[in-house]
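Exercise 7. Predict the structure of Cytochrome P450 from Centaurea solstitialis.
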Amino acid sequence: MVYIYNQSQKKEKKKYHPLGGTKFHQLINLRRLHHYCTDLAAEYKTFKIYNPLNNEIYTTDPANVEYILKTNFENYGKGPILNNTLKDLLGDGIFTVDGDDWREQRKLSSHEFSKKVLRDFSGVVFRENAIKVSNIFSKAANSNKAVDITDLFMKSTTDSIFKVGFGIDFDNLSGSNEKGARFCRAFDDANELIVRRYFDLSWKIQRYFNIGSEAALKKNIKVIDDIIYKLIHTKIEQMKEAKDDTLLKKQDILSRFLQMKNVEPKYVRDIIVTFVLAGKDPIATSLYWFIYMLCKHPQIQDKVAKEIKEATNMSTKDLEISNIAEFATRVTEEALDKMQYLHAALTETIRLYPALSLDPKTCFSDDVLPDGGSVKKGELVVYMPYAMGRMTFLWGDDALEFKPERWLDKNGVFHPASPYKFTAFQAGPRTCLGRDFAYRQMKIFSSILLGCFAFKLSDASKIPNYRVMINLQIDGPLHILVSKRYGIYTQ
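Solution. The predicted structure, encoded as tokens:
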């Protein structure tokens, strides 16, 4: 009888995920955090990180991801811990709120992204900035000087999001706008410092005494807020002077938000920061990781360039493109749709280097995940796009290889993977609204650059590391040698 009793007790006992480490281990591995989590995921698939304040569960299991993002969506959200951690920078934007606040912003943003006027306007802006970057590359090719593409691409995407989102010519690419440079430095540093809060349990003490990383964060946020509130004021004044039906009120996203009744400057500020975070960093980081991977795999770079040439109807006699602006006109929507291999190569880059490498959700009530592991109310469940892109149980033994072909069928047509396996753009109700917007900008940018230039690493032995931020930025410069692309198309 005692034996039977013990067995029944054992069956009722809750199952918990294995302990992979502690917050202290994460902190000491902070500069290689994603490698650390990937190593643990390769051993455990799903594991627990001990936190004396609130345990955290990390997973690479697509069934768990689908459960928290879709099946039991209402039980997993940002919650007070994540909101309090991010709020100083992101405010009450869509990335930090739940419930009605989230639904309202989601609805408004979805409506804006669906408009043809935004698509047309953004296409013009993307091409203009790609031409500006190409002109910089052209000068570098003539002088045989290396170019830091991390800085260049970040400036370009900043200019793009400020023009498309807010109707402002930030002109970072010219290098003459000190305000723009100051904003970008403050934004990137604040991004890194706010993420540090996840791993440094002393951050609230530092904030209280205004010391250490929290003092630096406060200074950076002040720079960001001063510039953004001035931007909002300037935009309001411009709209007062404009006629009701002018294009000024129709093109950029900020103008349309400001036409809402009783809108508070703080609400608009939070929306602007959200759009900057979503529209600047992920696209820039994806583009420079993409160029890096093409430099490491020159045969794939040539294959992408060949497809671009064919899609834009360039003659085999056009061995060198002398007029970049004229070539950019060939990069039409129809041409972009033909670039299936380019789309696959970009997606393969994002698989290995997803802009959002960790995505935490708060459990609102006790639950059991599909793998049988229990989750307590208030615990964080974190799925890991970076680690998931490197799991052999998901992608096969060649998971670490850069292989665009894995996304193409036998006819060379792109086919997406399950969003619960390829999680770079989230899934379920929180699927990234800007996914198609981002792909379109990346394809316009890439096709113009790779149609005109060939790239190789200035230092082929250098292996770039990342900064642990909300998005996966390369830590430091990445210098590329540029040459005008010609000769490879001869048949």
